Amino acid sequence: MWTSAKSVQFGNYQRIAAMSKKKSNVWQYFYKTSGTVATCLLCNRNYSRRGRGTTCLRNHLKSKHPPEFLSLSGDIKYLDLVKTEISIGSPQHPTAQLELNLHETDSDPLDTEDNSYNKRCDEKLALMLLNHSFEFIEDSGFVNFIRVLQPRYTIQPRSYYEKVLCEDIHRKMHLHLKQQVDLLDAISLSTSLWRGDKGEGLLSLSCSGISRDFQTQRLMLKCEALNYESTSKLACWIRDLVPSLAIEVPKEKIHCIIRDEMTALPGSLPDCNVHRLQMCVRFALQSNELLQNLSSKCKQIVDHFASSKMANDHLKFIQEIRLTRDPCTLIPYDPFQWNSAFQMMTSVFRMKDALSLYCEEYSLVQIYPDEWIEIDLCSKVMQPCEETIKIWSNPSTTTSSVIPLVAALRDSLRTDVHNFVSSVTICSFARKLLEELEMKFSHITSDIKFLMAAYFDPRYKQAFFTEREELLVANEVLRVLAGVPDDCNGQPPLKIIKVSSTSSQKNESKIDSILDSILTTGTTNTQQPNTSLGSQSQIKNLLYLYNSEPRIDRNMDPLIWWRNNIKYSSLYGIVRKFLSAPAASVVSEGLFRKSAHLYFDMQAGLSPESASKILLIKSNLCFSNSDIN
């Protein structure tokens, strides 16, 4: 306690001594009590200064406080004197053994002639602007911080850091992307467009592939920052998005191009499975007038409580006090969310009891008992669709899951049509949704990209194939592998690790339950493929061996399974190709929302070309989570 109080007192005395602005640095250890007396801040002893000099004070430090006496050497005029006095001091004194490096100080990297340090500082500061507006470097707080941190560093104008990003760092990123693409045997391209409510938007082209060690690689190859002036050029940009790619990619390396609804070719459906399923739901809802009226009622209720704080507080009071429940909130309608109407109705249904009590006291649009039932049934019909879209939206989900999940959705909707026949509104909605699903996904059972992806996923294999589809896959595998050498040659040895489940808990979602039921009741076809290519006996035997192995759990990673089973190395090339395609286009919404500052800078004068290059750098650093250097 005494030591702490003494240190506090010493600190106070130091501040007072510093304020006195004495010429001698001895005064950092003494306090001037009077004109002829000084008090030591270290031991609180008083010393006479009859000659008003500091020699006696230095002698006191030398004899009683040697380490502090050495610190006086920081003053150049005392340097030689201190070194001399220490050298003639008592040899047995501890200070005699201290090594003095009085002239050696840490060098300032900015004092060197090497310009690399300055350049690194410029690049690091420029990379900070990926997440901040260019106004950030002009903020007085940041400028003062840099002045304290490194006074010799000069903050340049915003145009300088724009040049660093758009020329130096962009050039490095371009080279990095080219090297990564060259390492992939096959890639799948994905186009996406996201627009904001003020005309701004982001057009992107990304690619995904599987490396030779079976690691998924995702890269952003091109970004176009759009403003309200770009609307007239948008169609041309979408058309030229792939042909104008700066990185040269051989056509034979491109496995497929997945376009979302906004970038789909004119008159064509989107390749993105998420957008196709969303279209099915949207068209089914638009064709059901009774369900739209019910949605409109729910919207009136939600808008009523959103516009009145008093009403919202009373509804909360009913839930907490009268019903003794945790308060729920109503979800407002969002036109930009595909399932917003259904989420809104579900939130209204959860508060059915509280809303009924509220209606007893206040005037509010009334929902009748049969309508409450229809809202509940509608959410049950929609649940597998929402779960499927959530699965497909995961960037790690490939096209191998499209055929299985569409089959599970088909079974679910058929069951709903049969079970909900008592409700004309919901039964017709489920039937229309099933019709849309059959129509918009009819191609997947004849498209070899989907068939091969499902077959080479050891979780599914042939579980969802007919005999015709099995024959198509077998013939395609034999045709593709006819002239392909063993992939094990020239490949570094792979580390064998145990295939483990990615989740220790069983997913209890509705769509997963249906899918597990199909896989459990189905049988694995272990018969050797019967094809006309009789000369391919080794490949046919390899396929027979693959078919005879049991399917792995759905929670396991198929790429890890392939990496561990080197006996199938002859199939590695074709496996990496067909499992490279994602189930959905890479959504640019996240990058768009995280880059609002860039669109603000565009309004302040940043060119769309520069903003596009900055977005490309930012997106790839997010994908790789590493430095481009």
From TrEMBL:
Instruction: Supply the alphabetized keyword list.
Output: DNA-binding, Metal-binding, Nucleus, Transcription, Transcription regulation, Zinc, Zinc-finger
Q: What protein name does the entry list?
A: BED-type domain-containing protein
Q: Which species does the entry assign this protein to?
A: Drosophila erecta
Single GO term (MF): protein dimerization activity
Coarse class of the protein's main subcellular location: nucleus
- What is any one GO biological process for this UniProt entry? post-embryonic development
Q: What is the lineage of its organism?
A: Eukaryota, Metazoa, Ecdysozoa, Arthropoda, Hexapoda
Q: Where in the numbering of this chain does the BED-type domain appear?
A: 21-72
Q: Which InterPro entries match?
A: HATC_C_dom, RNaseH-like_sf, Znf_BED, ZnF_BED_domain_contain, Znf_C2H2_sf
